[in-house]
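G., before I forget:
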Amino acid sequence: MASIVAVIASTHHPFYYRASTATGEDRPPFADEWTRKILAFRETLTRARPDVLVMVGSDHFHQLWLDNMPQFLVGKAPHYDANWYNEEREFGLPRMLLTGQEDLSGHILRAGLDAGFDLAFSNELRIDHSITCPIITLRPEADLPIVPIYTNIFAPPLPQPKRFVQLGQSIRDIVESWPSHLRVAVIGTGHLSLELGGPRQFGPHGPDPEFDQRAVEWIANGDLDECLREVTLDSLHSPGNATHGFMDFMLMMGVAGAGVKADYVDTLDLFHTMEAYFTWYPNGAPS
Amino acid sequence: MSKYLLNKFLFMVDRDPELVERYRSEPRELVAWWEAECANTVLNCHTGEASTWLRFDDVEREALATHDHVKLFELGAHPFLTLTLFIALFERDNTEPLEYQKSFGARLAHFSMPYPDIAT
């Protein structure tokens, strides 16, 4: 059976690529510290020597739209084109081509349906920055096959938070039941407090530093009980109008397991949001 | 009121560099053309498949034609779509980093929680 060698959760800041590659006067003052933190975070994946990446993210109205909106969707394609014109325009993101792992995609779809998740699938999926940002930060060689899993944190009505946790728990079981010798890392990205298109956007910090602090503690300690007690679809409006992306962090807590402390935790307080980086090693930290 | 159609306009224009430029330079004309030619296009279908009933109301049409992102927020347009497209339209006029993004937020300062419902 396959082994999960790392579970990784982080924010996905689309400005990282531009900030980290900028030089001279164009290089923002926080770029060096941000880059140092990302290089240390990247090492937590490199050390685990993965063969396959299961990538959990949220489409930002690029591939998925209100005419036909899935709640949870698994990509099943041999290749994935990545990033879109408006991401190139706004964030300077490069166009990318990633390889798919169709066998694992098929296994997740079959076993996920059997586990009670009515997963949508796509044989032609162009992915966006929620998945390409962690490639850029964690595996810039982009040399490993991926299985993209998209969640709807964007277009109401949304699934309940507990459903994200349950899906994460099932993904853990499903990947570990995959008849393969390959080493799998499960990587997911979400948000802490975040406001986009509203009055609290682009402040000097995230819109709700207090929420960010509690959220980081929940994730770092695997405190799913407290997190599920406090987080509801309604409550997530308060920390910022884009904070429902936090449910993808909750999904990753489900993958890591209730009560399991993260082996690696780091944060960076940036303008308009707090960056956060977490890694778990289900089979023990690699030497 | 059609929050869906507002979103569909923002979504479709944001994806097309030519439409972004037309919306910047001639918003009223672009909105009229889009409503006549594109609003009823059924996305993800073959060319020629269309619905027959999608229309803006007068308030929505005027908000789009005047680049009134505050009114779009009040009408429940998805704020991510509005922000992304309006950055494409006006960030280029910035004289300092994030100038437009910050002013966009400041113009919404009179809104408090709960914000207008964005469900379609």
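The mean pLDDT of chain A is 97. The longest strand of chain A covers residues 3-11.

More on Monday.
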